[in-house]
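Bit of a strange request maybe. I'm writing a small parser for structure token strings and I need a real example to test against, not something I typed by hand. Could someone generate the tokens for this chain?
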Amino acid sequence: MASSPTTFTSSSPAPAVPQNGRDAVYVAAVPLRVAGGPAQMMMSAAHNLNLWDLQHYMVALKPPSPHNQIIVYDFQPQNPEDVWVAIAALSSQSVPGVVLERNLKRLPSKSCWFVGLLRPEGLEVAKEFNRLWPTDLKIGHHDCRHYTDGNTFVSSGME
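Reply from user aminoacidic:
Good idea to test on real output. This should exercise your parser:
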């Protein structure tokens, strides 16, 4: 039975500078991307029918220095704009996924929530979590929300 992912609804402001020189752990949500045409029509229909929340969730680690880049981890389909990925997602089938690590200059200004501070060994634990995360993506059962829940827990100790 699949675990139920956390819904992030807090709108409390994040601290400007993390305490004790530790990275801050955030969760960010961005609109789900799809290619135009049939894939976009299917996703719009799913959204209009309230089949699922069309947001993509990711983990952001913000260093205490404003001069350092933010590390972002997320789990998504290998080809998120492929029409067949949209069809598989709507029919609850698994698709090949990939865990990505990217850098940002700043946190998203909307839909971004402070979770906690990175544990002393949190970065190494997060990287190991990424290495071991199974990459078969199935919307609602093993997707970016489940990944984000797991990664924030191991890196910060917070749920």
